[in-house]
Design goal:
Elements: H1 3-32, H2 41-51, H3 53-73, E1 79-88, E2 93-94, E3 100-103, E4 105-108, E5 113-116, E6 140-143, E7 149-150, E8 154-167, H4 171-238, H5 243-277, H6 310-316, H7 318-339, E9 344-355, E10 367-377, H8 385-451, H9 457-492
Antiparallel strand pairs: 1-8, 2-7, 3-6, 4-5, 8-9, 9-10
């Protein structure tokens, strides 16, 4: 094969490989655009609330609190347990250490009673005593040791017990109240976390809108400078402009192009951040409903800082409601501590069995019996331990109440700050709109004067810079109004309703 043929074949292979890679990238790009239907801010919020990992964990905490509440309720009901076991013993059990000979009795007609059968002296008829000083029986009943020896090498035993609490000092009632408050607190914390997620989504969403608007602005600015550069070059050819004018415009144009690249990269990263917050793949492609349209800013202002009903705000705030549930928990924990100083009463029933069983002389078979009773426990003296536990629970309740009061003061400050900041954002937005109109007119006048040769390139570039600054400030003010409105709703507790 010649070198030329080899190079042609290699070129074809490389072209085929490039085609395969391009097709694969196209397929991946199409796969990335599967989730493209989410365009509005409300839809992004819904997706984030459904996919956020923190909210998933808080939902599981709610489930956990619900299970714990059911567990606490089960303490009202009787508990049934089974216990069993096996025991191996090395030795048998024997009641006697040797054969036993027991004296017997016979009925005496004269005394009309049973009398021991004793050995008597034939001469006197009196009972005879042995060397140990005891009377000697004439007849005995033999009980062999083997008859009273039982095989307990393998013992099986078990018991089924039923325990019904009657009075536990109020502990069961308090534990049910604690678990109920814990479940309510978990729900409130879930709402609070959802508000944080919504605020993060709004911040990421409006960041994309802001950068998309600044991208358009940067492109318009580049076009303005490009047109100016074209005009200056023509004027240089005609001898009515200097090389310094050309360099000044070109430097400005290069800087604007660099800024455009930065905005493009920032827009791509902000889209990734929004996708990540909403649980989408970071390379997902989507179009925001507000990125190609003028964002409508409501003309209605905000209430003054002192115009809000703070009691209603306190009721709306989920974090404050969670703190209130914490106070309820501390209150019930105080009752639990008090229950340790009160008597407890419980009803107990059991069925116990074993093999060998004691009911039939250690017969090797299962047999048992029922038993019913009551248990009473009365604490008498614990050197102040239980009382100090109760006082500690009281202090914990006081701390929880102080935490709620402190949080309410912080919420009041937060509402005031959010209100002032939102009002300031509206004022800034109105000022930027006024400045925007002036900057547009200033740029139009400067360009007209430049064409009439009564203005320099520096005058035009100054007008263009002012125009760029006015539009950029207007975009920032517009986004700031949206974020301040969201933050104010969060401060008022109305964001997740």
């Amino acid at each position: 094969m010649s070198l030329t043929s080899y190079l042609k074949l290699r070129h074809l292979r490389l072209a085929a490989l490039a085609l395969v890679v391009a097709l694969a990238q196209q397929c991946l790009a199409q796969a990335d655009t599967v989730l493209t239907g989410l365009t509005s801010l409300a839809e992004f919020r819904q997706m984030a609330l459904a996919n956020n990992k923190q909210l998933m964990m808080s939902r599981e905490r709610i489930k956990k609190a619900g299970y714990q509440k059911k567990e606490a309720f089960a303490a009202y009901l009787p508990g049934i347990d089974f216990n069993g076991g096996y025991l191996y013993n090395q030795r048998d059990i024997s009641i006697f250490d040797s054969d036993q000979m027991l004296p017997t009795k016979s009925f005496d007609l004269a005394s009309q009673s049973y009398q021991f059968n004793l050995v008597k002296n034939p001469a006197t008829g009196e009972p005879i005593k042995g060397p140990d000083g005891q009377f000697i029986p004439s007849e005995v009943a033999l009980i062999p040791k083997e008859a009273m020896t039982y095989d307990i090498h393998n013992v099986f035993f078990g018991a089924i017990t039923l325990t019904q609490p009657i009075y536990m000092g109020g502990k069961i009632v308090a534990m049910n109240a604690i678990t109920k408050a814990a479940e309510n607190a978990a729900r409130e914390l879930h709402i609070s976390e959802a508000e944080n997620v919504i605020y993060a989504v709004d911040a990421a969403y409006w960041m994309v809108v802001s950068l998309k608007a600044k991208q358009k602005l940067a492109r318009s600015y580049v076009n303005l400078l490009d047109s100016l550069s074209h005009d200056v070059h023509m004027m240089l050819d005609q001898g009515v402009a200097t090389q310094s004018d050309v360099l000044s415009v070109d430097v400005k144009l290069n800087a604007a192009q660099v800024d455009l690249v930065k905005v493009d990269n920032g827009l791509t990263l902000s889209r990734m951040a929004l996708a990540q917050v909403c649980g989408l793949p970071v390379n997902a492609q989507f179009t925001l409903a507000d990125e190609d349209n003028q964002v409508a800013i409501p003309e209605a202002g905000v209430e003054p800082a002192g115009g809000y009903d703070m009691e209603q705000v306190y009721q709306n705030r989920p974090d404050l409601r969670a703190l209130e549930q914490g106070i309820e928990v501390a209150k019930q924990q105080k009752r639990v501590a008090l229950s340790s100083m009160l008597p407890t009463v419980a009803l107990v029933g059991a069925y116990e069995f074993s093999n060998p069983n004691m009911y039939d002389g250690f017969k090797k078979s299962f047999k048992g019996a029922f038993s019913v009773g009551a248990m009473v426990s009365i604490p008498l003296w614990h050197w102040g331990g239980d009382y100090n536990k109760y006082r500690a629970a009281e202090s914990d309740e006081v701390v929880r109440r102080l935490q709620l009061e402190d949080a309410r003061e912080l919420v009041s400050l937060q509402v005031s700050q959010a209100s002032y900041k939102t009002e300031e954002a509206y004022k800034t937005y109105r000022m930027t709109m006024t400045n925007l109109a002036k900057a547009d007119e200033n740029l139009r006048t400067a360009e007209l004067a430049f064409r009439e040769a009564v203005a320099t390139t520096d005058n035009v570039m100054e007008a263009q810079t002012a125009w760029l600054k006015a539009h950029s400030e207007q975009i920032d003010a517009m986004i700031e109004v949206q974020l301040c409105q969201t933050y104010l709703s969060k401060a008022l507790g109305t964001l997740y309703q």
